[in-house]
Write a structure and sequence with these properties.
- This protein has 70 residues and is an all-beta fold.
- It is 0% helix and 64% strand.
- It contains no helices and 4 strands.
- It has strands spanning 2-10, 21-32, 35-46, 51-62.
- A hairpin with a 4-residue loop joins strand 3 and strand 4 (51-62).
């Protein structure tokens, strides 16, 4: 089991991009027998709207193959 924390800052974003500034996120990776699961969360500013955007990603791998994060 692993927990990942992420922190970043987006500089010089293209004028067509609406995300700028501080970003943060976290992820959790679990292994249960032959199952590997990963959940990632990120929080991004939406400069064009003056609000925040939430991103959630789920990943699941069965068996001993290349799973999330491999």
């Amino acid at each position: 089991q692993f927990v990942f924390l992420r922190l970043g800052y987006q500089l010089g974003a293209e004028s067509s991009s609406s995300t700028r500034g501080m970003t943060l996120g976290m992820g959790v990776k679990l292994r249960l027998g032959g199952l590997s699961a990963q959940v990632d969360y990120a929080l991004l500013p939406l400069a064009a709207f003056g609000t925040l955007q939430h991103h959630i990603q789920l990943g699941v791998a069965f068996g001993g193959g290349a799973g999330p994060g491999k």
